[in-house]
Automatic annotation (TrEMBL), chain A:
Pathway per the UniProt entry: Cofactor biosynthesis; thiamine diphosphate biosynthesis
Entry superkingdom: Bacteria
Functional summary from the UniProt entry: Catalyzes the rearrangement of 1-deoxy-D-xylulose 5-phosphate (DXP) to produce the thiazole phosphate moiety of thiamine. Sulfur is provided by the thiocarboxylate moiety of the carrier protein ThiS. In vitro, sulfur can be provided by H(2)S.
Protein name: thiazole synthase
GO molecular function: thiazole synthase activity
Domain Thiazole synthase ThiG as annotated: residue spans: 5-246
Catalytic activity: [ThiS sulfur-carrier protein]-C-terminal-Gly-aminoethanethioate + 2-iminoacetate + 1-deoxy-D-xylulose 5-phosphate = [ThiS sulfur-carrier protein]-C-terminal Gly-Gly + 2-[(2R,5Z)-2-carboxy-4-methylthiazol-5(2H)-ylidene]ethyl phosphate + 2 H2O + H(+)
Organism, as annotated: Pseudotabrizicola alkalilacus
Pfam family name, one: ThiG
E.C. designation(s): 2.8.1.10
Gene Ontology BP terms: thiamine diphosphate biosynthetic process
Sequence intervals crossing the membrane: none
Keywords from the named record: Schiff base, Thiamine biosynthesis, Transferase
From TrEMBL, chain B:
The enzyme's E.C. designation: 1.4.3.3
Top-rank lineage group of the source organism: Bacteria
Reactions catalysed: a D-alpha-amino acid + O2 + H2O = a 2-oxocarboxylate + H2O2 + NH4(+)
Entry-linked InterPro entries: DAO (IPR023209), FAD-dep_OxRdtase (IPR006076), FAD/NAD-bd_sf (IPR036188)
Keywords tagged on the record: FAD, Flavoprotein, Oxidoreductase
Record's keyword annotation contains ATP-binding: no
Pfam family, one: DAO
Species of origin: Pseudotabrizicola alkalilacus
Nuclease listed as a keyword: no
Protein name as it appears in the record: D-amino-acid oxidase
Lineage of origin: Bacteria, Pseudomonadati, Pseudomonadota, Alphaproteobacteria, Rhodobacterales
């Protein structure tokens, strides 16, 4: 697995921490999925020394604060600085939302905020689209990791533009990339890993499942399966049938 | 001479004192702020007795005990037994199907107007006919009155369990500072909209801004409630107010004309599993962690505490370790 700002993750699964029925269920989801990163939103939960932060810290995984729900560069930068102080990490998942309904990134604001934060010593994980031009600009602005979307946040649609994501992966073979947002099923996560992405990040698919811990475990297994398959050099699809058992020597009846 | 001292006159402490009286004991009730009021989170509750709806995300124990809550409350306050209506906007009907899968005790309603004429055109819904609601402030007053009738007043004083001899029930909520207890912020609005008639609580399922509306007397409605993992005690935020009002407006545009009577924000005490507990610490029983189920679970919690004190019965909400 490619390293994220010098950090090798124990597993390629990042889980969000919102929307669970209770912190106890959240803890079970982390335990059963073996996720190695917890993302946490600072937009609505300001303030220090809070019990919920303690719960996140006690998960014993890397914490990736995010700027969820920020619609402007200024908001995102302020939130990032707050997060750095609160969690004592330079990591920041940068969201600059451009559209209230689709929650798709604002590419212009994202690029500007990436530059500002990278110059300030942040290690930026920009939430972006599969657009290659934008990806190149984000890297030039100082990002060393990309987080392309699978599909709109919370939609559960999976990899909405598989071709575009494949091309993005191929265009920047050395850049660690995380598929972030829109995954609904473990098969979507496997798909992302099979395409060569380094990790996946999800929240709703687990937190809002009827049994979040079981779904978390399923996602944990799914990323493992996808990563194994990718490393095993999968066969190329063929249009012609090829028998898997030898026909030589059998009676032709 | 009191047999048991109860500290905290919120919904948990009042219920504990009341249940002690019913069991033939003499409680003494102490609260640092005196009788119930805006200083306690019980004041800001919705007052829904909706154990089956809550079952969509809460542990099964909440539904099991909550099912008895309406009957327990009927002895001390007026309980309105008209069920709960759960609705979703047409584009969110998937939310309704999911909610139906994860709950019991409901039936699908194709014609909402038959139940709530003012909701005609609000799409489809689920009807939980065994659920009920009450007015929390009237319910607190009912408990205070029931205790007064039994000679139990509320002494205003600072007290901690350590400074009091004999058996103590500690029902101070977050002020008890128990390990593992956290505050979960909730915000609510009280509106007066005399044009709108709803006879039962209505829950709007929405992927981003879920809402419930609880009717109170004289055209007043309670809109609630946010649930934010934060211990910020400041007043309701503009964002939350916008979201709550937008959701209400989507349900019935006449809410735009409503008079905003009150806004409230406070912290719900909760343990990691969001299930309340009777925690036994020697001669002290800690009743805490009622989360968003204060009115739903206070009777069961109080009765289990009293059963433990008087007969040594260890109910499923009692933790001895």
């Amino acid at each position: 697995m490619r390293r994220f700002y010098g950090v090798s993750l124990e597993t390629p699964l990042m889980l969000g921490t919102a929307q669970y029925p209770s912190p106890a269920v959240l803890e079970a989801a982390f335990r059963d999925s073996q996720a190695s990163v917890a993302t946490v939103s600072l937009r609505r939960e300001a303030g220090k020394g809070q019990a919920f932060w303690q719960i996140i810290r006690s998960l014993g995984v890397h914490v990736l604060p995010n700027t969820a729900g920020c619609h402007s560069v200024q908001e995102a930068v302020t939130t990032a600085k707050m997060a750095r102080e609160m969690f004592e990490t330079n990591w920041i998942k940068l969201e600059v939302i451009g559209h209230a309904d689709t929650l798709q990134p604002d590419p212009f604001g994202l690029l500007e905020a990436t530059g500002v934060l990278a110059a300030d010593g942040f290690e930026v994980f920009p939430y972006t689209t599969e657009d290659q031009v934008l990806a190149g600009r984000l890297l030039a602005a100082g990002a060393q990791v990309l987080m392309p979307w699978g599909s709109p946040i919370g939609s559960g649609l999976g990899l909405n533009n598989r071709y575009g994501l494949k091309m993005l992966r191929a265009a920047f073979p050395d850049v660690p990339m995380v598929i972030d947002a829109g995954l609904g099923l473990p098969s979507h996560a496997t798909d992302a890993m099979e395409l060569g992405f380094d990790a996946v990040l999800l929240n709703t698919a687990v937190a809002q499942a009827g049994d979040p811990a079981a779904m978390a475990r399923a996602f944990g297994l799914a990323v493992q399966a996808g990563a194994l398959a990718r490393g095993a050099d999968p066969m190329e699809p063929r249009e012609m049938a090829v028998p898997s058992t030898p026909v030589m020597g059998k009676a032709w009846l | 001479m009191a047999d048991v001292t109860v500290i905290g006159a919120g919904v948990a402490g009042l219920w504990a004192a009341y249940a002690l009286c019913e069991a033939g004991l003499t409680p003494r009730l102490i609260d640092r702020s005196g009788p119930p009021g805006p200083h306690g989170c019980s004041w800001w509750a919705g007052g829904m007795l909706a154990p089956w709806c809550e079952g969509a995300v809460a542990e099964p124990v909440i539904t099991r005990h909550g099912a008895q809550a309406a009957a327990h409350w009927a002895g001390v306050t007026e309980v309105t037994q008209r069920g709960t209506l759960v609705v979703a906007m047409p584009r969110d009907k998937g939310e309704l199907a999911r909610f139906a899968r994860r709950t019991t005790g409901h039936r699908a309603v194709a014609d909402l107007a038959a139940l709530e004429p003012d909701l005609a055109g609000a799409g489809q819904g689920l009807f939980f006919d065994a659920e009920a609601h009450l007015d929390p402030r009237a319910a607190l007053a009912g408990l205070v009155a029931a205790l007064a009738a039994r000679g139990v007043g509320i002494m205003q004083a600072d007290a901690t369990p350590e400074t009091i001899p004999g058996p103590v029930i500690d029902a101070r909520g977050l002020a008890a500072g128990l390990p593992g207890l956290r505050g979960v912020r909730g915000e609510m609005l009280l509106l007066r909209a005399p044009e709108i008639r709803l006879s039962r609580p209505v829950r709007l399922l929405h992927p981003r801004h879920p809402l419930y509306i609880v009717p109170r007397a004289e055209g007043v409605f309670m809109l609630g409630a946010t649930q934010i993992e934060s211990e910020d005690r400041r007043g309701v935020s503009a964002r939350s107010m916008l979201e709550l009002l937008s959701a209400a407006y989507a349900l019935d545009p006449r809410f735009a004309e409503a008079e905003v009577l009150e806004t409230g924000a406070d912290l719900r005490p909760a343990f990691a599993d969001n299930v309340p507990r009777v925690q036994v610490r020697g001669r002290v029983l800690q009743l805490n962690g009622l989360f968003r189920h204060g009115y739903l679970m206070a009777p069961a919690l109080a009765l289990q505490a009293v059963d433990y004190l008087t007969r040594g019965i260890k109910g499923d909400l009692v933790h001895e370790d």
